Amino acid sequence: MIDNDKEDKEKTSLNSSELERYEEEEEELEEKKEMELEKAEAGIEETKEVQVDLLKEQLEKTEKEYKELEDRLLRVAAEFDNYKKRTVREFQSIIKNANEELISQLVETLDNFQRALDSAKSSNDYDSFHKGVELIYQHFKDILVKEGLKEIKAIGEPFDPHLHEAVMQQESDKFPEGIVMDEISKGYLLNDKVIKHSKVIVSKGKK
Fold it and tell me: What is the pLDDT of residues 145-184, one digit of tens each?
């Protein structure tokens, strides 16, 4: 009987000791969990700070690039405005002086006319005056041809409303119907563009 009581006491003492050990291990596990949780929370906070720093850095870089692009755009706009003003001035100057060379050539023809008129006042030589005027006329015509002027062909040509202006129609034994039979006023092309229509008489054909 005494041995049984002793054995029960030893078992009770053993169970109590194991229980304490289990409780200690449980407390250690809880402490470890808390430490791991604290580490995890600290890591999250650190990650957040790193992400925020990266975002700030990216934002600063983007703002810098935007500022550079804005400055570049302002410079390009200013350069384009200056170019546009300069182009307008140059174009106005070209328009203003476009006929300078032609007028310079015509001034010489004008002087020749003046000399011919002055000569006619002091001389009765009609033949010389006529020849002089013919030379001036030819010189004047050569200048205009050089600048791209062409006479429109009329007499003997089919009537073309793009080139000719019909003043009247007449019967003709020489020219078929619809053919220009006479020219009242010459027409001209300037670089293949009609600047003056020929005024013509168009044949009706034979009676």
Answer: 988 999 999 999 999 999 999 999 999 989 999 999 999 9
Q: CA-CA distance, 1 to 142, in Å (whole number)?
A: 157
Residues 6+ apart with CB under 8 A from 185: 198, 199
Domains of the chain in sequence order: 150-207 (2.30.22.10)
For residue 61, the model assigns a pLDDT of: 87
State the SS3 of the chain. Answer: CHHHHHHHHHHHHHHHHHHHHHHHHHHHHHHHHHHHHHHHHHHHHHHHHHHHHHHHHHHHHHHHHHHHHHHHHHHHHHHHHHHHHHHHHHHHHHHHHCCHHHHHHHHHHHHHHHHHHHHHHHCCCHHHHHHHHHHHHHHHHHHHHHCCEEECCCCCCECCCCCEEEEEEEECCCCCCCEEEEEEECCEEECCEEEECEEEEEEEECC
C-alpha angle with apex 32: 29 to 33, nearest 5 degrees? 85
CB 163 within 8 A of CB 205: no
The length of the chain is 207
Q: Are strands 180-185 and 188-190 parallel, antiparallel or unpaired?
A: unpaired
CA–CA distance, 61 with 22 (Å, rounded to integer): 58
Contacts of residue 45, defined as CB under 8 A and 6 or more positions apart, other chains included, come to none
Q: Side-chain half-sphere of 34: how many Cα atoms within 13 Å?
A: 6
